[in-house]
Amino acid sequence: MGRSQLAQAKCCKRGHIALRLFGGAMNDLVDRILTAYQLTRPLDGELVADSRRKITGYIESLAAAGQRDAKQLTVYGLAYLKEMHEGRDPHFTGC
Q: What are the two backbone dihedrals, phi and then psi, of residue 56, each rounded to the nearest 5 degrees?
């Protein structure tokens, strides 16, 4: 199995785990995250589509790692979008 096939298999496995955990609620969770973020910073259609794809992958990876609390996933998702669109918070150095 090639490197890209392996990456795709991992992605698909992660997605199946997340869908099993949340059922149809995954789309609702991603919608909730995007809607809440856009209340503070509106995004154009292209950025929304790109953000939806990235935030879905991020939430799927958190769910596959065992995070199942929808409220906590929403907080993580909002923080992820904020960092993605606004950059890192200078108050946090990562140390």
A: -65, -45
